[in-house]
Amino acid sequence: MSHKISDLWxxxxxxxxxxxxxxxxxxxxxPGGANNRLAAWDPFDATMRYYKFILFExxxxxxxxxxxxxxxxxxxxxxxxxxxxxKSLDINLDYLFSVxxxxxxxSAMDTRSVDTVIEIGAGFGRTCHALTRLLxxxxxxxxxxxxxxxxxxxxxxxxxxPDQMNKISFVDATDENAWRGIESDLVIxxxxxxxxxPETIDKYYESVIRNAxxxxxxxxxxKYTPDSVGVGTAAGNPARLQDVFSLGYxxxxxDIFDEDALLPARAAFVSAYAPGDDWRAAAQAPMELVPYxxxxxxxxxx
Length: 302
Ligand SMILES: C[S@@+](CC[C@H](N)C(=O)[O-])C[C@H]1O[C@@H](n2cnc3c(N)ncnc32)[C@H](O)[C@@H]1O
Known about the structure:
17% strand; seven-stranded mixed beta sheet; 11 helices; alpha/beta; globular
């Protein structure tokens, strides 16, 4: 059975992630680097000032528990990201998201009971890094991703959590037999289903998510037009834009800067990604910095 990948990720993995070697890993999170396709947007505006002010403001206004958790992550600087300094910690946006995501999860479920995790679409592995450090009883963490990105997450995790590598498995998403039927306490999808064809997401529900006890998703609640963020439509690639509009379960075009538009789209998101009738949305919250992304934790009821 062939595994359908979006045109977007076909070309990204071929062009941008074709050579994941040491030089690539040294610098892929530098401004202008390939990481702008993964965890964080590219800091380039005319300068980095705009980006750094947003990051600095966010880093200065986290709950007190955030800083202790962040410190426990250890080295968050692989790939050479931009950071700001708060409470003597070098904080970057990727791992600020990771600690926020952990805090959401921890407020919604007993994270001490999580032994096994599967993550679909892990990027460079920041969530795996964070959870192997923050979940006290974790036995295994399985990443399902495209081969080129597995090479990247393996390389990064080897540097960031070398002592945890015996718990981490890397599974090729394109080999569906390798993941069909696998089970875990918790399945995670962050910022990936929005870039995956709906029929492929269906397979992840059938073969992975519905086997789990809990499912945590953080993804966009809709699509937006390039002009709403100041990009002229003519400047974009129309075929790629069409591809992006066909991906994920939440494909309505919304004004992501209109709170009235976000409210119904959030409700539609929670319903669209529910794994089934025997699941409930135990907790949900908009992402703080980028409120057209929504966090939801679903728990099995039976
Ligand atoms: C925008 S990145 C997000 C990465 C990560 N979750 C984060 O937030 O840092 C999207 C991820 O989805 C992965 N992906 C794309 N198509 C996929 C597929 N069909 N199956 C599994 N992962 C896929 C990409 O390789 C990439 O790792």
